[in-house]
Amino acid sequence: MSTQSSVPDPSDRNDFVAFVRAHQSALFGFAVALTGDRSAAEKLTADVVGDAYANWPRVSTAEFPLAYVRRMLLNKFLRNTRRRTVVQAPRDPELVSTVAERDPAGDSAQRIAEHDELAQQLASLPKQQQAALALRYYLDLSDDAIAAELGCKPASVRGYISRGLAALRIELGDGGSGPDTPALLSPTLLAVPPPDPA
């Protein structure tokens, strides 16, 4: 019996390292948009990067390797059925400084508070709604593209987004006069790098 490993040979390792260096921050940003939690996003990203390494020969020959790995990340997020409790962790100084740098209005304390509240509410949504919101407002995908990613119909995507936004607005107490929920899902206010094009 042959014991052939799916781990890339050393000549492919340099390509993998270059891929990770080029796209790890964008993958992490997408994971933050999905999970609403930086530490869960770090774990999710690390797991997916490890999976990508183990399958690098297949990943590297895909038409769009970044889209392939991003789909791996989405699938792993959707498969993780454990509900997690968002615990208020001590404020990450890097997050505070990043938000302060990116906040043109200069009200970073308010933005951080809004982000924290949104992250807790995102975590309470069903995973399909979380994913649809992240794909729409972080990656700026169309209904058809989101449907292809989630393996459902565009009408289902519209339902996920509509119900997700409605739940967030109710939980955030936004009767139409509060913060713009989709804007809170933007890379700038999530304090993560913008996504790389696929």
UniProtKB/TrEMBL annotation:
Domain RNA polymerase sigma factor 70 region 4 type: from-to ranges: 116-168
Domain of life per record: Bacteria
Gene Ontology MF terms in the entry: DNA binding; sigma factor activity
Record key words, sorted: DNA-binding, Sigma factor, Transcription, Transcription regulation
Region (Disordered): 176-198
InterPro entries (alphabetical): RNA_pol_sigma-70-like, RNA_pol_sigma-70_dom, RNA_pol_sigma70_r4_t2, RNA_pol_sigma_r2, RNA_pol_sigma_r3/r4-like, WH-like_DNA-bd_sf
Keyword Transcription regulation: yes
SUPFAM superfamilies xrefs: Sigma2 domain of RNA polymerase sigma factors (SSF88946), Sigma3 and sigma4 domains of RNA polymerase sigma factors (SSF88659)
Single GO biological process annotation from the record: DNA-templated transcription initiation
Keyword Transcription among UniProt keywords: yes
Protein family (similarity comment): Belongs to the sigma-70 factor family. ECF subfamily.
Name of the protein described by the UniProt record: SigE family RNA polymerase sigma factor
